[in-house]
Amino acid sequence: MISCKSNKKYSFLLALLFSFLTVFSSFAQGEQASVSQDGVTAGAAGPDVQAGGTLFKNNCASCHAINEKVVGPALRDIHKKHKLPWLISWIRNSSKMVQSGDKQAVQIFNEYDKQQMPSFAFSDEEITSIVKYIEAESAAPVATTAPTGGNANDQTAQAATDGPGGESIGDAGKYLNFILIALIVLLIVMVITLLIIANLMKDYLRGKKDLEGNDIELVEQRWDFSKVYKSRAVQVIAGLIFFCVLLDIAIEETYGVGLSQGYQPRQPIAFSHKLHAGEHQINCNYCHTSVYKSASANIPSANICMNCHSQIKKDSPEIQKIYSAIEKNKPIEWVRVHNLPDFSYFNHSQHTKVGGIECQTCHGPIESMNVVYQYSPLTMGWCINCHRETPLNTEGNKYYDNLVKLHDEANKGAAFTVASNGGAECSKCHY
Ligand code: HEC
Ligand code: HEC
Ligand code: HEC
Ligand code: HEC
Ligand code: HEC
Ligand code: HEC
After folding, report:
1. Could you give all domains of the chain from N- to C-terminal order, each with its CATH number?
2. Is 429 in the pocket of ligand 6 (CB under 6 A)?
3. Are 305 and 322 in contact, with CB atoms under 8 Å apart?
């Protein structure tokens, strides 16, 4: 005996449930599609691009890759270098073009020691699709497009199996989001289902004649918001959420500000100081060029890496990430390890050049770290203690001559420390 009014209620709840499920399933499909497409081709891959990809892998990949020279040249952005008609005639018969004296053809032929690229009896459409494929691959990040096909040399094959390490983090993030959303949807579906069941049961009870006082009250019960927020359970849950948010902010603050000794974030490229500064003894200021000149020590740009890595370990997937950054004209996103709060002032050149303090005094044995971590506490107490204990490096610095004389006259025997020169005054370190 279900009344007309409650029928409406059910259809509303059921419609809600249904729409949630459809939204969720379409979302899931979309997510899957984008995941499976990753790594094949970047962005929108039309049928053209896919067909071109197959042709490329079967016919060209043995001699060409997108990003590096194999037997023939790297084909990245070839559509920008040559017009389509040129590419069509070249791929059909490159030697004919060379013989005809086409300038570009002769130049590239000579550049590659007069090797002859084979001819291909492809239709215009087929060649266009290959070019489209190359175009799509050119837009993709370098590390994901390491060639796999053909008899590409060992190193590139290894690059492909090693895989792009950085990508997995992003994927994990994507899946975490996915799981989170799935959980939320599940929760909503459960709530709606429970509401439906509760209503069904109420209706069932209402149909019974021999109800007792308590049951009648239950059946007649209406939603009352003041009851909801006065409820103990709701208060506890709200309190808990509030506490979690606070905790999160607190953690964010300490880590964000970087006062955490031992902080060792994972870096986007597996760059090792142990290898570079330790084994290969590259000077710190070869990379951190401003450390003796200015307040902040710079993190080297990708171009500095290229001084060596345009030659060394070119095929390493980690080095490919540097290439990718340069091609995309984006800086490598190193994660900052040391970070004083904005209201304090620290100057590298004052300490390294003027004070003559070694990097290792503050940063620890960097030259034996594979991954940099924060060695010193970087607290105010740490700064001031050192200023109290460290005699000023006054030798050969004319600026200090007079000051030293004055100091020695005033405090017989006491060392002329940084602090005694005002290095513990608040304004020296705080704006
Ligand atoms: C057997 C090796 C080989 C195969 C297979 C091959 N190429 Fe080439 N390709 C070369 C060489 C070598 C050159 C350099 C020019 C020369 O020496 O003729 C070249 C040059 C080119 C160029 C000109 C590059 C530039 O920088 O101007 C294009 C475009 C090209 N190839 C496309 C293709 C396509 C597309 C395929 C597959 C359908 C293909 N090649 C298959 C060896 C090959
Ligand atoms: C070949 C280039 C290179 C050389 C040589 C080098 N570094 Fe670095 N350094 C980097 C790069 C790149 C980073 C950023 C990535 C990282 O943190 O590992 C970095 C990061 C650092 C950091 C952490 C910066 C932060 O985020 O707070 C310190 C400290 C540091 N280097 C000190 C040194 C010292 C000391 C030496 C010499 C013993 C040295 N580096 C030599 C390239 C270099
Ligand atoms: C002065 C030369 C030089 C500079 C500059 C340089 N490197 Fe290196 N790098 C080397 C040498 C040498 C090796 C060791 C190669 C080997 O093991 O065969 C190496 C190895 C590496 C490796 C390990 C590669 C692997 O797969 O084994 C990475 C990653 C790397 N460097 C990143 C960088 C980054 C990032 C920069 C710029 C901040 C940089 N390098 C700057 C010389 C340099
Ligand atoms: C007196 C201590 C001290 C010495 C000596 C020192 N550093 Fe630092 N370094 C710091 C502090 C403190 C920070 C954090 C600065 C900030 O967050 O503003 C830092 C940060 C850095 C950074 C990150 C970029 C920046 O400027 O914030 C690099 C790179 C670095 N130091 C390299 C070096 C190198 C290389 C040397 C040696 C030539 C060196 N440091 C010597 C204390 C020191
Ligand atoms: C290892 C010892 C040491 C540590 C740690 C250290 N300093 Fe210094 N600091 C010195 C020395 C030595 C000088 C004096 C350099 C000179 O002018 O000869 C100096 C000078 C200074 C000056 C200039 C003082 C003046 O009188 O002009 C400032 C500002 C300063 N330090 C800030 C800091 C801050 C901020 C920190 C902490 C993040 C810090 N220092 C950590 C050794 C240290
Ligand atoms: C040698 C440099 C130096 C001098 C001198 C110095 N401070 Fe600081 N101060 C720092 C640094 C670095 C921090 C950030 C690290 C930290 O919070 O411990 C800081 C943090 C602080 C904070 C934030 C609270 C905290 O601990 O996080 C306050 C407040 C402060 N300083 C006040 C002062 C006052 C007042 C003086 C003068 C009596 C002074 N400082 C002198 C370097 C200095």
Report:
1. 47-139 (1.10.760.10), 379-431 (no CATH)
2. yes
3. yes
